[in-house]
Amino acid sequence: MKRQSISFTEPNDNWLKIQIDNKEYSSKSELVNDLIRQARNQQNEVDWIRIKIDKAEISGFSTDSKTKILKESMARLNEHL
C-alpha cells in the first residue's frame, strides 16, 4: 500500500476524528480509502448511466431529454445508497 501525506482543513479533520471516535473506522486512512471507493463506485455508475442515455437518444428509444433521464436515474440510485 502506498503511503501519502495529506492535509485536511480543520472542519474536515474534526469530522474524521469523530468518525474514528465513534468506532465507525479504525483510522483516518481506512476512512479516506472507503470514501474514495464510494466515490469511484458512484462515478462508475454515473458513467454507465450516461452511456445508456446516449445509446437511447441515438436509437430513439426514449423521447425524454438526457437531463430528465439522468435526473430520474440519479434519484433511483440515491434511493439504494
Quick structural summary:
72% of the residues lie in helices and 0% in strands.
Please indicate the count of domains: 1
> Hey, roughly how much beta strand do the residues contain?
under 5%
Q: What's the helix-strand series?
A: HHH
Task: Point out poorly predicted stretches.
Answer: none
Large-scale geometry: elongated
Major sheet: none
Number of strands: 0
Rg from Cα: 18 Å
How many helices? The count is 3
Going by helix content, strand content and strand pairing, the class is: mainly alpha
Structure keywords:
81 residues, mainly alpha, 3 helices, elongated
Helix and strand arrangement:
Blueprint: H1 10-21, H2 28-59, H3 66-79
Helix pairs in contact: 2-3
Structural notes for this entry:
By secondary structure, the protein is mainly alpha-helical. The protein has one domain (10-79). The chain has three helices and no strands. The chain is elongated, with a radius of gyration of 18 Å. The two termini are 28 Å apart.
